[in-house]
Amino acid sequence: MKDKILSLACGAIFGVGLVISGMTNPEKVIGFLSITHDWDASLIFVMGGAILVTTPIFFLLKYQVKSLLSARITLTEIKNVDRRLVLGSAFFGVGWGLVGLCPGPAISSIAFFEPITFIFLVSMISGILFNKYIAN
């Protein structure tokens, strides 16, 4: 039970961070991706801050077998770049560039009741189900 509460707290902190940084605003993300006019560099600082916080933690915990809650840590053994990875990355990038949302900020944006958020989430879930049941 405490792992569920901790997960909820971490997710809430992440969501609040996305809202405070403005990453739930699709116009801000599209402003970063559009280098032709009114470029908004703020996303670099959000990414840089995330890298500065997580890099030392990953380094310190690199050889841990269990989490602080005693859950087993498993990392993927897949090291190769295949067609599915390239296509999935391309779809993610195109969707992010067209709409200005990715899964984390989209879920955080539910609280704003913007129609684009719900359209994005339905599309994302449809893509996940398509990949799970049809594409494989």
Condensed summary:
The protein has one domain (2-135). Helix content is 68%, strand content 0%.
Features:
136 residues, mainly alpha, globular
Q: Report how far the terminal alpha carbons are from each other.
A: 34 Å
How many beta strands in the DSSP annotation?
Answer: 0
Mean of all residue-level pLDDT scores: 86
Helical proportion, percent range:
55-70%
Description:
- With 136 residues, the protein is mostly helical.
- It has one domain.
- The protein contains 6 helices and no strands.
- α2 packs across α4.
- It starts with a helix and ends with a helix.
- The model has no long low-confidence stretch (mean pLDDT 86).
Write the layout of secondary structure elements.
Blueprint: H1 2-21, H2 26-33, H3 42-61, H4 83-99, H5 103-108, H6 115-135
Helix pairs in contact: 2-4
